[in-house]
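Retro notes, item 3 of 5
We never archived the inputs for the fe (iii) ion complex last cycle. Fixing that now. Sequence and ligand:
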Amino acid sequence: MQIAELKAKELKPSLFEMSGISRRTVEEHYKLYQGYVNKHNEIVKKLASVDLSTANQTYSDIRELKVELTFALGGVKNHEIYFEHLGGNGGKPSGRLLELIERDFGSYDAWAADLKATGIAARGWVWLAFDHDYGYLFNYLGDAQNTFPVWNATPILALDTYEHAYFIDFGTNRAAYIDAFFANLDWEPVARRLEEAERMYKALRQD
Ligand code: FE
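Structure as it came back at the time:
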């Protein structure tokens, strides 16, 4: 079984003109993202020739490679969502996205307060995700690229809370960084991801 090699996506220019989150932070952050892409490809190559007969749950090549693949691939996917929806003008979402946020959290402000608190409580990531089994939105918490994902849920927004995302600009003041994250959000890709997730949800229930 062969997984395709990945290529790092380019950053859009507006990511270098954000308020609060500096060009330097984005440049350094992008290097980490490229690192995840490279490590993913390195692991995939090694998996293609791994000796399956040595499989062992305490230590084996296949075990180590498959564990770290989730970290590398998580790092790729999380950052692609993160970079895609930053570099915008903030404000509030609209349309179906706002409707579902209000339905599932009570109000936009209640959702934003929950995201911020979850972000302060997380050691790595917060995802707003759509659950395909139950059809709702929830702010999930992750401590690393690959911890605590929920099966059959599509992340539509990803907030990086690792220190590399803010320490240069905000020191230990993560709350101020999360405020800057909101202020630079581009809601369009978030709305598009929700639309795609809901299309899948409806398609699964059509026959
Ligand atoms: Fe990051």
